[in-house]
Write a sequence for this structure.
């Protein structure tokens, strides 16, 4: 299994290539045992969220991650990809606004890194 930092880089590159919007990386290292990194990104439509998820899963598999846990793909409003030490949340804009995960995690004292 690749190190978390390598998986993070793969996720960031894939999301950038697929034009995900408002990508936020939250560093959870030493703050929780659930993961080292939490990535939150927006797709403009259900179709784009589905494509982001599909491409990311393919790249993870080819990098040696094997299977990852995925939830929410049939609707593609909010897709969660759990790759162990890296957890990815892909949202449609209105769903992301409603759940506002960034606020929850920022209030927990986790540091964020925002990318375009």
């Amino acid at each position: 299994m690749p190190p978390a930092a390598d998986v993070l880089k793969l996720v960031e590159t894939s999301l950038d290539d697929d034009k995900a919007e408002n990508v936020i990386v939250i560093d959870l290292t030493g703050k929780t045992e659930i993961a080292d990194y939490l990535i939150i990104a927006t797709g403009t439509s259900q179709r784009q969220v589905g494509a982001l998820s599909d491409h990311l899963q393919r790249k993870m598999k080819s990098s040696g991650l094997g299977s990852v846990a995925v939830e929410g793909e049939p609707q593609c409003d909010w897709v969660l990809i759990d790759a162990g030490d890296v957890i990815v949340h892909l949202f449609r804009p209105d769903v992301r606004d409603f759940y506002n995960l960034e606020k929850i995690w920022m209030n927990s004292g986790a540091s964020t890194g925002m990318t375009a």
